[in-house]
Specification:
Layout: H1 9-20, H2 23-31, H3 39-63, H4 69-78, H5 80-109, H6 119-138, H7 141-169, H8 172-177, H9 186-197, H10 206-209, H11 217-244, H12 249-252, H13 258-267, H14 269-303, H15 320-335, H16 341-370, H17 374-393, H18 396-417
């Protein structure tokens, strides 16, 4: 690939932040309403885990700068079986997660067009947004990256407005009354909320996935990952406190556009409209970035022999790749339809988070195997423990589909792919 077409660390960092600060922030207050304002603690715990995982990917980027994405990291440390599992799991997570992002965008469009709150119109809107983002990716990875970066800047506008509104109208009584709507202890609510909350931190691996597209992977992957996580954590905690301090949890549970509702309650309908427009633009940018992530994951998997050769043309991504991805996402959008957008969003992000956290655990294990420096191994252990604990705490409805997925892919591996290529021996390097 021409060096001029590669991403600098600054643009890569914006892609990381843009992929993280997206639909999770805009629609999650409604999804987290059953856990109440105590979910703020979950945000902070998830933020700690995300910073640790950012350090994991930073170390992997230094150790294996020529690895092609997450599957490359897993393969280098643990062998081709885990590289195959990682490639298919992360690709699937991208596809399912993209549908969730489209659902969030539709939720804010419903602020202007209430008919989109109904299942059938919402599904058609989701499909249109998916194919629009796919078109941006077909124009080129750099085009999709620039759109995601621009959308991040625009998308921060409603968050700033929401935080200002929260400061102006924050009511400690509302925040306290919403602390635990079901009167459950923190030992139950915080772990149970982690898999859902961590949806908002998915994207910490964005720079690693795009490692073949950045100019200096050994330096830029780490810088972009850590900067994105720190920014996102600050934004998430501030915005969550703002919305739970103004809108009761019972009302949030029925909202399809929480921050627009917050702005409307404090500043009026006109400002709420601005918030909704910015949220739509941001979610479209997030969708564009994640469509690119899915396509790049499929391309890397194809180059490694994990997917058919039609997904890759060397370092280039053939048009069939994003088109097939869009077709799969379209099917997922239809079959995941629920009576409300919030319910559909919750199911999609739960499954996506558990799949991705499993991938993070595998990458952490790979770092432990590759690293010789004790500090890197400690980071790897913490990454593995956090990822495994978050998966274990998730609802069975999210864990069981993930377990079924890995059983299915294991059968595929041993039946068809185990002898397709010579196994790659793990290599060691200094952290």
């Amino acid at each position: 690939m021409n060096e001029k077409q590669k991403l600098g660390w600054g643009l890569a960092a914006l892609v990381v932040a843009g992929n993280m600060i997206g639909s999770g922030l805009y629609l999650l207050p409604a999804t987290l309403a059953p856990f109440g304002s105590s979910s703020v603690i979950g945000w902070m715990v998830a933020g700690f885990g995300a910073v640790t995982l950012a350090l994991v990917f930073a170390a992997l980027g230094r150790l294996q700068p020529d690895a092609d994405g997450l599957s490359g990291f897993a393969e280098r440390g643990l062998g081709r079986f885990f590289g195959f599992q990682t490639a298919l799991a992360f690709w699937s997570a991208c596809l399912i997660g993209n549908v969730a992002v489209a659902v969030a965008a539709t939720g804010y469009l419903a602020f202007f067009f209430p008919v989109l709150s109904e299942p059938v119109p919402a599904t058609f809107c989701n499909l249109g947004l998916i194919w629009l983002a796919t078109g941006a990716y077909i124009l080129g990875a750099r085009t999709a990256s620039r759109f995601a970066a621009l959308a991040l800047v625009i998308g921060l506008i409603p968050i700033v407005i929401a935080v200002i509104a929260g400061v102006a109208a924050f009511d400690p009584n509302v925040f306290e009354a919403s602390w635990s709507p079901d009167n459950r202890p923190l030992t139950e609510t915080v772990p149970a909320s982690l898999a859902i909350i961590f949806w908002a931190f998915l994207g910490v691996e964005s720079a690693a996935v795009l490692s073949a597209r950045v100019k200096d992977p050994s330096r830029d992957v780490g810088r972009a990952s850590i900067a994105g996580v720190v920014l996102a954590t600050v934004v998430y905690v501030a915005a969550s406190c703002a919305v739970f301090g103004v809108i009761p949890a019972a009302d949030l549970a029925h909202s399809s556009s929480p921050y627009a509702d917050l702005a409307a309650k404090v500043f009026g309908a006109s400002i709420a409209g601005v918030v909704a427009i910015c949220a739509v633009v941001k979610t479209l940018g997030t969708l564009s970035g994640w469509v690119m992530m899915g396509g790049e994951t499929a391309r890397a998997a194809s180059r490694s022999g994990y997917l058919p050769s039609g997904f890759s043309a060397g370092e280039k991504t053939p048009i069939a790749n994003p088109l097939l991805g869009a077709a799969i996402m379209s099917v997922a959008a239809v079959i995941s339809g629920q009576p409300t957008l919030g319910a559909q969003f919750g199911i999609l992000i739960g499954v996506t988070s558990v799949l991705t956290l499993t991938v993070y655990a595998v990458c952490s294990a790979s770092l432990f195997r590759l690293a010789r420096w004790s500090r890197a191994r400690v980071i790897a252990i913490v990454g593995m423990v956090f990822s495994a604990a978050a998966v274990a705490a998730a609802a069975p409805g999210y864990v069981l589909p993930t377990a079924g997925f890995f059983v299915f892919t294991s059968v595929i591996w041993f039946a068809f792919l185990r002898k397709s290529r010579r196994a790659v021996d793990p290599t060691a390097a200094d952290a």
